[in-house]
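Training component of the fellowship. As part of building independent skills, the fellow (R.M.) carried out the full modelling exercise for a liganded target. The chosen ligand was glutathione. The inputs are recorded below so that the supervisory panel can assess the work.
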Amino acid sequence: MTILYSFRRCPYAIRARMALLVSGVAYEHREVRLRDKPPEMLAASPKGTVPVLVLSDGQVIDESLDIMRWALDRNDPEHWLAGDDTGLIAANDGAFKHHLDRYKYPDRHASDPLEHRAAALALLAPLEARLAAAPWLCGDTRTLTDAAITPFVRQFAAVDREWFDAQPLPALQRWLALQLASPLFAEVMRVHEQWRASPLPDAPARE
Ligand SMILES: N[C@@H](CCC(=O)N[C@@H](CS)C(=O)NCC(=O)O)C(=O)O
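Fellow's submitted model of the complex:
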């Protein structure tokens, strides 16, 4: 059985789960706590980030975009791979994520949150322009690019919802709201209990 080590709120894990779910590939979900990672996950991927996918033959995929592409290569009923915009995704994972972290966690980064909020906001302008021209980032249908970027924009919006809703980003706001209200998103955000390996069976009682 394919196994996914995942953490509910991690944007990388969210996008991996979105692609896995759309592909219909069966897998066992193992919910981890980042402060208490299971040794089974670290044995498979010592770098210690989620998501980690362990295939039935033991092969390990421990980058979220690779998990998405692996799943969709198996089965892609919504043609998500037709919208794999590597440039847009790289800008999200690079500069946007950089500013998002420094806006969301100023204490951790000793950063000025408003400076980084402004920088991240500027990076949303190209997304707004695309979404003003078409309902999804790569055209008329939802694709891998939408799924890859949505969890990060969701985090950005949630830091100060009132401020985000007041920004002149009507197309992006509609796009985000549509996805957060989708059955796909509801399913990937379902709460799972922390996974733990089954305890070893009790040792036989000694006479
Ligand atoms: N490039 C990786 C990044 C994954 C990542 O950084 N995940 C975070 C959680 S959102 C993590 O596991 N961090 C390790 C930790 O906090 O201990 C991917 O795309 O899968």
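The panel noted the following from the submitted structure. The domain at 81-182 is CATH 1.20.1050.10 (Glutathione S-transferase Yfyf (Class Pi); Chain A, domain 2). The first helix runs from residue 11 to 23.
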